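user: can you give me the structure for this one chain? tokens are fine.
assistant: on it. calling the predictor now.
[tool input]
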Amino acid sequence: MGVPLLDLRLQYQQLKDELDSAITEVMTNAAFIGGPKVKELEDAIATYCDTKYAVACGNGTDALFLIMAALGIGKGDEVITTPLTFFATVEAIVHVGATPVFVDIEPGTYNLDVSKLEAAITDQTKAIMPVHLFGQCVDVDPLLEIADRHNLVVVEDACQAIGATYKGKRAGSLARAAAFSFFPSKNLGCAGDGGVITTDDGELAAHARKLAQHGTSKKYYHDAFGTNSRLDALQAAILLVKLPYLDVWNAQRRDAAAVYDQLLADIEWLELPVAREYGEAVYHLYIVKADTTETADRVLGALREAGIDTALYYPLALHEQDALLALPGFAKPSLPVAESCDARTFALPAFPGITREQIEQVVAVVKGALL
């Protein structure tokens, strides 16, 4: 019997009565855009992340874009980020008119390598956008020290890391502002698209909220050009049902990762993810790295043949993507660690509720793939 990468049907069955009731309440009240459910969710997320403000929006990509726009980052500015992440990170930078600058990653965590950060700073650098990739926080303290020394703003791309911690603090509370995604596959996912911004900066929160509503703070009066990025009340209601279960689900992901760590430890051609001691990861994905692309191809093929869901994360680093190479003035940097991940890093199922029997089934296929 197969194993999914994420079992959303299982999650729905476990919460069916609560979810159906919450959806029915919204449908009955017919308050579909904004309203009390969205405000309740914003308050709950701010409390969970220990920030003063949370601003709901249409998706995680918009959350990143709105933060950049609210900060006034634009043409002529440079934003330093990681080359190994989902494309949305760099889209937000480009869409405000800024230039992305890439710094190589750490082996094992796949996060931005803070030790290489300062060398990338120029007179045009305005911000640093680290990504807490696969659910583990970047080493934030040295990053913030560098940013403070150079008068740079730091924005967390926490879209894969809700619930992750760094030295006891939640992702989303570690820098000037943070973006989260509620895409269905995320650790806290809705039934469509959704996102939120967290910050302690009241001015930034108000500006981002205005930009998300066509540049208006008062209906039909506009003092800025914004966009349409509002969270549906249905999605807010679903997220409010799920949020109380998030920490339990994240703990189950960590438990699954620990089993994989134990059972896969003796495979010489497979690099396992590294968990830093400075915080708790939430394993949005459990990522392993094969020694070659050929090995990865064989393992992926064996998993799929056995009905086990998997995927490359990511087949190509951002600085190698055609869209980036076509940017005026963009010079492709040499980032060997990120490039070594191309088509070699892939996910194994580690969702909340996965059983040890399912994990052992996955491990057996991985170990047998090269025999």
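assistant: here you go. The chain has two domains: 8-244, 246-368. The mean pLDDT is 97.
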